Each structure stands twice: as structure tokens, then as C-alpha cells.
Amino acid sequence: MGNGKGKNKGKGRGKKRSRSLKENKVAAKVEIKPEDKIEDKIEIKGKHHCLRKRPTHAPTSRCLRLGHVVQCPIHPNSFPRRLSDATGAQGQKEVEQQLISFFWSFKVDRACQRTLLDICLLLLWLCYVGLYILASYYSTEERFIFLSIPDFGEKLHIEQYKGYRRHSVCAHNNHPMWKNTKPRHLAFRAHHRHVITCLQFDADKIIVGSDNTHINVYDTKTGALRAKLEGHEGGVWALEYHDNTLVSASTDRTIRVWDIAKAKCTHVFQGHTSTVRCMKILLPVQIDQHERPQIISGSRDSTMRIWKLPQPGDSEYFPPTESVEECPYLIRVLTGHQHSVRAIAAYGDTVVSGSYDCTVRVWKISTGESLHCLQGHTFKVYNVCLDHERNRCISGSMDSTVKIWSLDTGALLYNLEGHSSLVGLLDLKEDLLVSASADSTLRVWNPANGHCQSTLGSHTGAITCFQHDGQKIISGSDASLKMWDTRTGVFERDLLTDLSGTWQVQFDTQHCVAAAQRGDVSYIEVSTHPTDIPSIYNLLFMKILDFGASPETIPSGQFGKRVLVDELGNEIESPK
């Protein structure tokens, strides 16, 4: 692929396109070199868009034929070609409605309809925001579009388009990902019969803490137990890692720092006089003043402590006494709360804490100053989160409300009502706030104005865990793990059922990891898809993610099977 200087070979249509490019002052033209054969492109599993600025003009040079699910061609000329008049939310809605009415006129496999529509809307939206695709190839089987990267000196990276959320950059495969797709469902026992209190994972490892005294490190791919980190004398209530450094907080009133690769404790921080209930690793950002990562801990002793995160190569530190004044890693102690510090959230030089004293406090980390004491909740505060882009914080309480506060003035901006019991979990991502309650429901809110967009109500017990990414929500309750469409509030399906408890859940674009109890035994359940799926393919992700529950909409043969393994990663019973 190169920057061609010859005439467009598309005759009249090519000339018209060239004139359009000239009129819009777009210099780049694309031609297919002999060496850029389609057959060569098919050998590549996935190709990314390369996007460049262009005024609103939808490409119509090729016919979009989805041969495996559509029995007749869909030509881009059928789509709305000019979107310059479709400005604002109303204009976008009209374009989407026009496309939807057009799209459903074709005979499309129902299991694929929503995914295909999502892809088509994505392509239209790229034109709408002023971006276009420089070139596209199609497989010889006419199965999928190849959106390739021409070799221009200036390349645009995915990071530059994060602001467009799902309407940014995507990858296609020449074989449909919902066909012949069997995500692997791996399961292994963890911490015997203990409650799993905290979990973090990546593609390499899963680190799990429980209400016993140790932390387990598992291999994400095999489920094998890599290491058992021992040293705490009480339950582990919080853990977080950065690179090779793990930090854990316990009911034994200490914070421990571990070298993950060596499975070794390197530092012990003492000073809290009661359970360390919450803890965060705070990484430096541009607006921040500190130069190295910090640890922020909150305790039932009503205080918070700021520590320096030990760096690789630092000397080990094991204090002989509980005299924290001599600890070289302690920066300062934050005092002001009158009861347990239950939750903390931090960004830059700001930390927000929620307490059982019914208040939320805003602190300046670099000085330890309490900037605001936010009063309004009538019962214990269980969770807080920061909306640093709007300079706000959000709190959830046992009084069943969610409150949005101004960090500038400390004023209450919105009081979000609707839950009927404790709001213990909050998550803010992609301009959507999700709250989870002991009333068995989740609610999706617009954090800009406090409006409730949807209520998710298929659980039968208190919500114990959830995560969302702006597109989908995965939530756990007493007997099941469920998946929802965040945008519509529609329940998609059960991922795990027949559980006696669900403790934790986390997911990324390739894995979903849940900590659950079956009978009286705790398990880690891992669903892994072999291909990394960009978050823009939310509907595709939701169709293929599988823990073994069989929805009516998808043939059971396309689902993976649960494989139970022992501590060595060896299968110990037949798949179910």
C-alpha cells in the first residue's frame, strides 16, 4: 500500500471521488500495488484501521457482502451517504434509525444481527465524526472486511482515539469470530472454604486474597498455583499490584509489600491500630506533585496513612517494633474521621475517603490538609469514586442513596434516589455511573445530570460484585453471575448459575475471572477467549463470553466446557 500519484482507475466514479477529495483538500490517494494481493492479506489474522481526517463523505467504492449470514449484498450506497446535516444527538439517532430499518430488511442470522448492526453503526459513525478509512480489502470468501494500514509516514495510534470510546479503532478477522469459537472455561479451587475478599489479574497471573492469612498466585492460562504468599496473621482485605510489586492490607493491622516473581515479602509497614480495610496504589500523573508511586491505606482506627511505594532494589524493611515514626516509607497520617474509613479513591493530589461516621472527606495528599467534609448521608458510607474530569466525587451509603459532590466547593450537586437498601458498590467509566445495592438491583446513571438511565433487576439477592466498561456489566449475587448491556439495560444472559455465593468478578477484552462458591468450596472460574477482542465489539464479546451456562440463543456446540484443574494445572475431572 502506498501513496499513489496516478489516476483513479474507477472511471467516472473514481473521477468523482478524486474531485471530492480535491474539494475537501485531502491530498492522500490510495492505490493497490501488485504486491498487495488480497491473498497475502488473508494470512494476517487481524488488521487495524488507519484513520485520517476527512469531511463527511461515506465511502461507497465497494460492496459490503457478509456471505455467511446475509443472503444478498449490502452496498454502501444504501447507507446514508452524507452525514453533515446529522449533527447532535437527534441527528445521530435519526441516522441510526434509518440504518436499522434498512438493515433488518435483509435475511440475517438472528444471533448475528446485533453484532453486525454494531459494526455498521461504527463505520457510519467514523464518517460522522470526520474520519474515514483509507483502504479496505475483502477476503476471497467475502467473509469479512480487511481494513489495512497504508504505509504513510504519519500513523495514528489507538490511544489518540480513546475519546471516541467504541467509535474509534477496530480490527477484523477474515473468519467470523462468533463461528467456531470455543472460549476455554477453566476452574480451580482457591482458599478452600474461605471467603475470597480481593482479586486482581492480568493475562499472566491471578492474585487472590481471602479471609485466611495468605495470598495465592495462580497462572491465568493453566490455573496452576505458582506461589502461596504467607506472612499476614489475619485476613487479607485488600490487595493491589503494580509491575512486580504487590501490596496487601490485613486485619492484622499491617501492610505488606511483596516481590511477586520471587514470592517474597520485602517490606512490612506498621502503625495502624486496627484492621486496614482499604488500600490503593496511587501512580503519578502529570498534574501530580509526587514523583513516585504511593500507597494510601484506610483503617478501622479512623485514620489514613500515605506511604512511599518501595522500588525495586530498595533494602528490605522489617521493623522490630510498632514504632512507625522511624519508618522511612511513611509520608504522613490523615486524621479527621470519627469512625472506620471504609473506602478511598485517589487521583493526582486528591484522595477522597468514605467513613462509617456518615461523612465523605476530600484531602490534599501533598499537605495532608482536609479540604472538605461532605455531610449529607444519614448512615454509613460504604463506597466512593472520583470523577476527576468533572472535578467531582461520588458516594454510596447504607442510607440507600448515591450522592454527587463538587470537589471545588464541597456542595452536594445531585442526590440519586431509587435504591431501597445499602449501596455498597460504585463504578464510573465511559461517562456512565453504575451503582449496585443490597436490594438486588443495579442502576445506570448519567453522572453529568444524575438521571437514572436504567434499572437492572434480575438478581434475587444482594449484589456482591460487579464491573462495567461502558458497554457491558457483569455482576454477581448470591446464586449467579449475570451479564447486561450497559447502553440499553437489557439482561443478556447468565454466565454462572447454581452458586452458593459470588465474591469477586473482573474482566478485560480476553478474560473474565470470577471468584465464586459452589457448595462450601471456593473456586476461581476463568473464561478465556483465544483472541483479544476490542471493547468496541461489545455485542460480539457478549455473544461469545462463556462460563458454561447455555443460553437459548446460541448453540451449545459453540460454547467451551468447564475444565477443573488441580494446583499443578492438571485436569482432575471430566469437563461438564
From TrEMBL:
Gene3D superfamilies per UniProt: YVTN repeat-like/Quinoprotein amine dehydrogenase
Keyword ATP-binding: no
Comp. bias regions, Basic residues: 1-19
Residue ranges of the region described as Disordered: 1-26
InterPro entries found in the cross-reference section: WD40/YVTN_repeat-like_dom_sf, WD40_PAC1, WD40_repeat_CS, WD40_repeat_dom_sf, WD40_rpt
CDD domains: WD40
Keywords tagged on the record: Membrane, Repeat, Transmembrane, Transmembrane helix, WD repeat
Ranges for the WD repeats: 229-268, 334-373, 374-415, 416-455
Domain of life: Eukaryota
TM regions (residue ranges): 116-138
UniProt keyword Phosphoprotein present: no
Protein name: Pc20g02580 protein
Classification lineage: Eukaryota, Fungi, Dikarya, Ascomycota, Pezizomycotina
